[in-house]
Design brief:
alpha+beta, 4-stranded antiparallel sheet, 8 helices, 24% strand, disordered N terminus
Length: 344
């Protein structure tokens, strides 16, 4: 039987039971009154004889007097008042005009921030840096508009925020991530004539705690925060201009000796039996050109097939991970099975 049929039957039985109870109650009441002998008082109960005597019922003087205050007296009241231009004596057309101006200012502010961000760049001298050096980082912002641009500073001056992330690849260990954050105040004025550029710089020590690793990928991004931007004689609600992020490699000292012929250097390094050579494997792979990567993968797989030194096998699997982007761990047989799939 379905759920709907069961519910219908239950309601029907309940209705029949209620009707029978009403008939019996009326019959008993009539019988009770008719059986009372003349001159005898009928028994009248002033309370339910089957009720629990310990139950106490408490009611207000007038339980039917439920007011609005009774329901909402403890609730917080909103202080928001719906705007009614007619009641406030403001012309509806004027409200529409002001609203349109606000929307236009917001759109222009977004365009202003986007265009300034497009021409805000970070640069370093060279695509490959050396661990332990102090790196100069240059920041440039150009005004692409035909009006004067002025960044309005907070009370303590403009705020420059620099973030950099160091992705470290170890020769014999797994990779990890190191993040740094620096904040600078710029006390001078930031005013650019049409076509003029703002330039500033800072230095970044290429040092981290712990094992330095064999190869770093460094990414730097920055932003300047203000309270507004003046374009000509008009102020716009622009509060942040972003610099385009930059990425570059950082290698251990001495990497230059492998830079001219990295593929040939990799083949030579794989033949050496020394711990220092394990670090050079990753360095050579980082210096490879795109056209040399497939040949390097074949060299590494061939070395892995005959490798008996666990440290050298680990450096080879780390290098394969770097070159292929396949995170297959450090077990040689897993990489050899992967190589078989591609006939390497």
């Amino acid at each position: 039987m379905s759920r709907q049929n069961i519910d219908a039957l239950t309601r029907w039985v309940g209705g029949v039971f209620g009707l029978i109870s009403l008939i019996l109650f009326q019959a008993c009441s009539s019988a009770e009154l008719s059986d009372v002998e003349e001159g005898q008082e009928p028994i009248v109960f002033s309370e339910d004889p089957f009720a629990d005597e310990s139950v106490e019922v408490i009611a207000t003087a007038n339980v039917s007097a439920i007011t609005h205050d009774d329901l909402t007296g403890n609730n917080e009241k909103s202080q928001l008042v719906e705007f009614d231009s007619a009641a406030m004596g403001v012309d509806a057309d004027e409200v529409a005009r002001l609203t349109a101006e606000l929307r236009l200012d917001s759109l222009q502010a977004q365009v202003l921030a986007d265009e300034l961000s497009k021409l805000s760049t970070i640069s370093v001298d060279g695509a490959i840096q050396t661990m332990g050096d102090k790196l100069r980082i240059d920041f440039t912002t150009q005004n692409p508009f035909g009006d004067v641009i002025e960044l309005i500073p907070p009370a303590n001056g403009l705020v420059f925020e620099f973030n950099w992330t160091i992705e470290r690849w170890g020769a014999l260990t797994g990779g990890d991530m190191v993040q740094r954050h620096r904040v600078f105040h710029y006390p001078d004025w930031f005013v650019l004539e049409p076509g003029e550029s703002f330039k500033e710089f800072t230095t970044l020590p290429l040092e981290v705690e712990g094992e330095p690793g064999a190869v770093w990928i460094v990414e730097i991004d920055a932003r300047v925060r203000c309270v507004g931007v003046m374009q000509g004689n008009k102020r716009f609600p622009v509060h942040q201009i972003n610099y385009n992020a930059i990425r570059f490699l950082v290698l251990p000292e001495g990497w230059q000796q492998f830079s001219d012929e990295p593929l040939q250097s990799l083949s030579k390094v794989l033949s050496f039996d020394s711990e220092q050579a394990d670090y050079h494997v990753m360095v050579c792979c980082a210096l490879l050109k795109s056209s040399q990567r497939n040949a390097a993968v074949q060299l590494l797989i061939d070395k892995l097939r005959i490798c008996t030194d666990p440290h050298r096998a680990l450096s080879v699997t780390q290098a394969l991970n770097w070159l292929t982007g396949q995170d297959l761990g450090s077990l040689p047989h897993v990489w050899l099975e992967w190589a078989e799939q591609f006939n390497l």
